[in-house]
């Protein structure tokens, strides 16, 4: 057996090693933002849609109203706006972003990822981008993924977003689910630093044996699953009682385990930000952890359950309202479809005041403007590069037949996105 030192002397690597930080870095949350549609759907509005009433909804869920996206609003547009607000708070340029992760259960497309479209809208030309599917735990999973890349020194700046337009996949005839969900997006900017703090620990868990307790079937779902008359393509199905039992079972243990991993206890917690599923589950978290209810953040009454977006929206609200101070220890806990759950412990280190409009603000607006101009130019340039004389003839013929009303619109004509 040759030892590693001898091996490297005998067989020196020909790969050029880029200089790396010698110690692990810390991932700090330096920016936050949220975007919700302006259209409000109250419990009394719901009374006109399904057989329900305000008193039943409030007593079982704590929800009073939720936001519903207008037709022009999409998961991408909400995510982009939330990310822009987070970049403003962090005072970071889109070109400085190395990675964009969008946690969502309601992407516009399976591919391209929502994250890639957000990357394009922001003009984050140096960023990698991908979507993450872990239902309501997705944002916490995303934070952990970005944090790991930052800790190793591979990247410096990441934007993690939770964004949903659940109103488009809710079964508006099912009073057991349509009362719960809403639309919105929240985002954070993470940045690497040698200063201790930021994300201290994370625990990610899954129990796929409960996959059928909360589902949203898409095109490749098993036919048998969709033939029972209960489950429908692109519609949320939920076993409410089962999910309630699961959430209350894991929430306390998950937070305690993540605290232990960070060398902390529940006494150190300044605030818990749970997934905003249901006020009864949120109250249960306080009881399970034996902490005062005021320490468990809740906005479920105003936004309902926005799945992957609920934690970053709550975090952005709490930070914006000055409820989190530097040095505070926070626990973010997500749970939902999969079944999946995740907790992350954060030592808050951001400065509480929002930076005034700076030179970077102007440069950021410039980069957004360049992204808007760049998009059509790059698309046209790419198309031009692909043109051969025969394809020009084919396309001209196609345009002629289309002018005569004989051909459907060509997919590549859609440059208005
Ligand atoms: N309005 C009025 N009545 C309703 C109703 C509504 N919106 N939805 C259901 N009901 C009725 C049911 O039909 C049932 O009537 P019945 O007894 O005559 O059959 C009765 O209320 C009780 O229904 P049930 O489903 O047992 O209610 P519940 O106490 O379990 O509450 C939830 C339902 C969905 C609020 C609850 O199970 C829950 O919060 N689960 C967790 C959901 C969640 O958080 N999901 C997201 C996780 S990410």
Rounded average pLDDT: 90
What is the total number of structural domains? 2
Query: Which band does the percent of strand residues land in?
Result: 15-25%
In this structure, how is the largest beta sheet organized? Answer: 5 strands, mixed
Distance from first to last alpha carbon: 60 Å
Tally the helices.
Answer: 13
Question: Tags for this entry?
Answer:
417 residues; alpha/beta; Peroxisomal Thiolase, Chain A, domain 1; 2 domains; five-stranded mixed β-sheet; four-stranded mixed β-sheet; binds coenzyme A
What does this protein look like?
This protein is α/β, with parallel strands linked by helices and 417 residues long. The chain folds into two domains: 307 residues, Thiolase/Chalcone synthase (Peroxisomal Thiolase, Chain A, domain 1, 3-Layer(aba) Sandwich); 28 residues, no CATH class. A five-stranded mixed sheet has the order 1-7-6-4-5, with helices on both faces. A four-stranded mixed sheet has the order 8-13-12-11, with helices on both faces. α4 packs across α5 and α8 runs parallel beside α9. The longest helix has 28 residues. It is globular and about 70 Å long. The model has no long low-confidence stretch (mean pLDDT 90). Bound molecules: coenzyme A (COA). The site of coenzyme A has 19 residues, from α3 and α8.
